[in-house]
Amino acid sequence: MKIKTSFADTTFIPHVLVNPTRHEPARPLQIRSRPGYLLNRTRSGPVTEAGAAWSRNRGRLLGLLFVLLATAAFSARASDPVGIYAFVDKVIFEPNEQTPDRVQVWGGFALAKGKGEEYEAAQRGYMYFKLRTGEEDICRKEWADLKAVAGTGQIVAFGSRHDSKGTVRSTEAKPERPDAHPKGWGLTKVKVRKYPPLDQLVALQAKHPGAKP
User: Fold this and answer.
1) 128 near 178, Cβ under 8 Å?
2) Which end of the chain is more exposed for a tag (fewer CB within 10 A), N or C?
3) Domain check: are 173 and 102 in the same one?
4) pLDDT digit string (tens) for 76-88?
5) Are 57 and 104 part of one and the same domain?
């Protein structure tokens, strides 16, 4: 399974086109009347001053509307959809690595909460997953990807903010009642940058003598 680039590295920039044929600032709509002129287009008569003014300013009005819609769309997409940021120390397959039904993923984890970009404080421990019914092959491929990055120090993202994420268990907790493997967009590698959950995971790694940069 191919490991993709993270959503956390993606910057969404709306591309807005506002009246590209004119560069002067927008002017307010002015409607002047003269004797003998109507304020709208008649069925058979010429275009009046009001009609011409509306035609000139229609592009500006449509451009402003497009800006508002693009801003709203950008705001809606600005929240981080990732459910779990983590680094992996080790992966334990159960009952075996060839056809596992469950998996223990040990390392550090920061789980999403609520909406937007809020995450629980990153903590060490392990997560215990079982196969999702009907998507067993997808789960096993993601478990293999987690195994591939174990011990490398690579921070990864998986799961969805808007779906079940499971729980982080203490290192002393007995592995029982596994959570269904979280559904998302696959496993993605994350480039470290200034971002609270990533900062906390890096700090956790620094406390572990075996962690790699």
Assistant:
1) yes
2) C
3) yes
4) 345 899 999 999 9
5) no
